[in-house]
Amino acid sequence: MDANLPLLAASTPLLTDTAAATGAFPWLSLIVLLPAAVALLMPLLPGDGSDPRLPRSLALGALAVDLLLMLVCFSRHFDGSLSGLQLVERVSWVPVLGLEWSLAADGLSAPLVVLSGLVTLLSVAASWKVNRKTRLYYALMLVQASAQGLVFLSQDFLLFFLAWELELVPVYLLIAIWGGKQRQYAATKFILYTATASLLILVSGLALAFNGPFSFNLSELAARSPGGTFGLLCYLGFLVGFGVKLPMFPLHTWLPDAHGEANAPVSMLLAGVLLKMGGYALMRFNVQMLPEAHLVLAPALIVLGIVNIIYGALNAFAQDNVKRRIACSSVSHMGFVLVGIGAIDALGMSGAMLQMISHGLIAAAMFFVTGVFYERTETLSIPNMGGLAKALPITFAFFLASCLASLALPGMSGFVSEITVFLGVTANDDFTTGFRVITIVLAAIGLVLTPVYLLSLCRRVFFGPRIPALAVVGDMTPRELVIGLTLLVPTLVIGFWPRVAIDFYSASTNALSSQLAGTVAVALGRFTALG
Length: 531
Hints:
Elements: H1 18-22, H2 27-39, H3 53-76, E1 86-94, E2 99-105, H4 110-125, H5 134-153, H6 157-166, H7 168-178, H8 183-210, H9 218-224, H10 228-245, H11 254-261, H12 264-287, H13 291-317, H14 322-342, H15 346-377, H16 388-391, H17 393-406, H18 413-427, H19 433-462, H20 478-496, H21 499-530
Antiparallel strand pairs: 1-2
Helix pairs in contact: 2-3, 2-5, 3-4, 3-5, 4-5, 4-12, 4-15, 5-6, 5-7, 6-8, 7-8, 8-10, 8-11, 10-12, 10-13, 11-14, 12-14, 12-15, 13-14, 13-19, 13-21, 14-15, 14-18, 14-19, 15-17, 15-18, 15-20, 15-21, 17-19, 17-20, 18-20
């Protein structure tokens, strides 16, 4: 089977021969199933669960092996110069439902799978202080790792939807059991928002599956590429469903509450991985499967992205809780993903992908360092902190570096991703000059606001009068230094050498852009014929 399956909807080949496509070894299945299999061993561990060392070591070992499998698989068996599906695995699972165990990777999924594996491993490594119900905690972390990988690699809609629903359960429990004082409220709000949105995803996916010969296979659904009112309705259903996870204004209000109550490792997962599922799904379903509807609604996506950028930045100023302020900054930064996707341009799509990778690393680093000084100060209230720079100089250095990366300092990944989104919007002649100018000006306002609220956060937390109760606290340990460096070093590498990330996905984003251009050409041809 040809490994270079083009993304063009009109000529998307179907996945047929698993053995020929995979070369016999099921890399992707092993990556997805290993964490869940180890999670099943957690109840069998000796002890009453109060000693975290054995379950933590087992989880760390499993996730380290899983990340190693990802790196070996994608470095040796994945070709970033190809735009189509690779490492294809397809097995009939439940024929009566049309459900297949269908996995494959392309440029849209491969970098996000690696990001997911890295952030999950570091989240477990950051969970050193968890000493209650430890077997359940680490089992949930492992199940979450499997569900995340399955979301990015599924090539069957029903399998994708099951994975999308599965990852909600561990997050809900991780917030509800190990969260803060308002954890039940935050967890319930999270599950209500995301579960309700899932209904729209399911309805839209089933509508596509029944629109023609019944199939859940994503390649077959993409080949149909329905347009008209039907395509627009499916697009809107997916947009709202995936927009909740992104999160997209006004569907974002669960996020500050979830971050405010979750512990730091769970916040690392929320910001580093879960939000990226929304952006990935928009590119996979809305853009790739419904290109005609996307061309119609792309300007609306840009407008929504600009609202995200400015609203998230302004809302951050009102937060007196460190994690809630960072959560609002995530809303702002994910707005660039919406703008890049709406740009209907290869450069814009590339910027959206790079922004997801960059923000996954930066936001995880910010929440991790926040957890470091929370463990020492036992407060996240900005007015109740001050003068921590002298007591925690290394922690301050890491937090400042994370903030500089988040505000798009040149030389760090945030700058490259956001400037690429800008260039994608300005390079697209399909938009009027006025629309492009207004988009750039408004997005630039968000860029100006970002350093203001982040640097003011640093000033209030780390400078000013020292609070006597916080005068004597220990700085970062070697373990915490390793975690912090593992998250921040890639942002510098990508900032100075963006091709490290771009080469992974550029063929796929270029193919998506070509698909949209082809759709425009077909539409113009129909219009000319009617004329």
